Amino acid sequence: MKADRLRKVATRARRFNRAAGLLLLSTGAAHAAPPAPPGDARGSVVLYCPTECGALELPGFAVRARLPRLATRPVLSVTPVAELSPPAADEQVWVGDPIELHGMGDAIVVSWAAPVGEARSRMGEVLAAVAAQAVPIEDLDTGRLYAPDALPALIAAVTAEHPDVAALSAVLVLDEDDGSTLLATRGLARLGLPELIDEQVSGEEVDPMAARLNAVAQALLEGAPLGATVPVDANAFRSDSARVAGCGLQGTASLAYGRGHADVVGDAAHAVLASFDGGFGECEGAAVAAAPAAATAADTLATVQARALTRLRGPVRDAAQAGLPSGERLLVKAPFPSSAGEIEWLWVEVQQWDGDDVLRGKLVSDPTRAANLKKGSAVKARVDVLFDYLWVKADGSQEGNTTQQYL
Q1: How far apart are CA 333 and CA 346, in angstroms?
Q2: Domain ranges within the chain, ordered by starting residue
Q3: Structural contact between residues 10 and 3, judged by C-beta atoms closer than 8 angstroms
Q4: Alpha carbons 188 and 142: distance in angstroms, whole number
Q5: Which position among 15, 66, 338, 384 has the lowest Cβ density within 10 Å, counted as fewest Cβ atoms?
Q6: Which residues are within 8 A (CB) of 79 and not within 5 positions of it... i.e. 6 or more apart?
Q7: What is the pLDDT of residues 70-86, one digit of tens each?
Q8: pLDDT tens-digit profile of 311-347?
Q9: Average of pLDDT values for 300-313?
Q10: d(CA 14, CA 54)
Q11: According to the 3-state scheme, what is the secondary structure of 348-378?
Q12: Could you give the CA distance from residue 76 to residue 68 in angstroms, rounded to a whole number?
């Protein structure tokens, strides 16, 4: 997602949070005190209903007009939306097939809060009640929109024995006025964790630094104590997908409590990643382009491409031939000749992967030189001529496209 779109997502989430009665912190400089743990876990979603949203009742939740400042028991707040419109089409990030939200007959904001120790179980209960409505929702914590058939995968991710934090949160990429880039998580607060912020990230380091931020969050989710330092060993993560995405990261994160980013994280407890003593190990096909921040001579386009195609021919092919879950898409970058004999690399959405390694699908790119093709054309390609792949997961995360930063 582009940085400007992420900025809009963050702004929209803050606007909803204010509507739900959350208080924004005043701005100020970050300081080096230990990070403050969140007092509770809380989150919000919007339900968009074609006519009228049904009643939402959850046993064990107290229903309040507004969430309390600190939840010592599960609390639910349901607020009708009178004039708030859905995100603009170019700001929508869908999990599942997009649905036209403008013109919906009703919308409600559902906010919940619970003690930290009950975070995932209570979040799963809220999402299950929401899924029973069979309507699209907007996740105000991450900015993602979910089609009704994509919610079961999200609920499964929330209630998994060893969840992947990347499936339950998002990393915002925000351009700063001084030319630097700031990374900030959204969605950790509903897991009973502080939101994490990484300042002064250069544009070339966004992918690996986002992977590093997710790894720190994963370590906290799996029980690392929240303090001034957090040990991280991605090879020991209990979540298989988080272990792959962590790309062998090992080291110690130094965290500091910050007050300078209320415009990004609202009133959520948050911590600034002040430094990280350590680095990535060998990357065997991470879920993001997580090459080491300082690329070595061995990390050339050819080696990154070879690594991507090895994974494509292995677990990605197995998943595609078994049938991807609802809401997931696999795209590959394939070569197509122009009338002048030039090669144009175009993205193809895979619809069928035959046993002889021939992929069939439709073009999702607009050709500029392959005049006999157009976006939506049915095409096929052999796997041995492909350049890269992109696997869009049902939870909104992505795997692949690792060659992009070397082009």
Answers
A1: 5
A2: 37-159, 166-279, 301-406
A3: no
A4: 9
A5: 384
A6: 19, 20, 65, 108, 109, 111
A7: 999 999 999 998 776 78
A8: 888 888 888 888 888 888 899 988 888 766 677 888 8
A9: 74
A10: 26
A11: EEEEEECCCCEEEEEECCCCCCCCCCCCCCE
A12: 10
221: phi then psi, degrees, rounded to nearest 5: -65, -35
Q: Specify which of 55-64, 121-130, 381-390 reaches the highest per-range mean pLDDT.
A: 121-130
Instruction: Please report the pLDDT score of residue 225 as a whole number.
Output: 92
Strand 270-279 to 195-201 pairing: parallel
* CA atoms 146, 149, 150, 153: torsion sign: positive
Position 325 scores a pLDDT of: 84
**Separation of CA 36 from chain center:** 24
| Domain topology for 301-406 | SH3 type barrels. (2.30.30)
**Is it the case that residue 221 has pLDDT exceeding 50?**
yes
Q: Which of 378, 381, 247, 386 is nearest to 313 (CA)?
A: 386
pLDDT band at 370 (very low <50, low <70, confident <90, very high): confident
H-helix segments, 246-363: 262-265, 301-311, 317-322
Q: How many CB atoms lie within 10 A of CB 339?
A: 9
- The dihedral formed by the CA atoms of 322, 324, 325 and 328, expressed in degrees to the nearest 10: 170
pTM: 0.66
**Assigned token pair, 232:** 């991280």
- 10 Å CB burial of residue 330 (0-12, 13-18, 19+) is buried
Helix (H) or strand (E) holding 241: helix 240-245
Residue linked to tokens 């993001």: 288
| 392: Cα separation from own chain's centroid | 10
pLDDT of residue 245: 73
Consecutive H or E run containing 385: none
Q: Which residues 6+ apart lie within 8 Å of 29 measured at CB?
A: 259, 260
How high is the pLDDT of residue 297?
35
Helix-, strand-, coil-residue percentages of the chain, each rounded to 5: 30, 30, 45
What is the pLDDT confidence band of residue 22, given thresholds at 50, 70 and 90? very low
